[in-house]
Amino acid sequence: MHAIYVYYRVQPDRAGEARQCIEDMLAALRAESGIAGRLLCKRDEPTLWMEVYDPVADLPSFERALDRAVHRAGMTRFLAPGGARSLECFLG
Question: Do 3 and 55 touch, CB atoms closer than 8 A?
Answer without folding.
Answer: yes
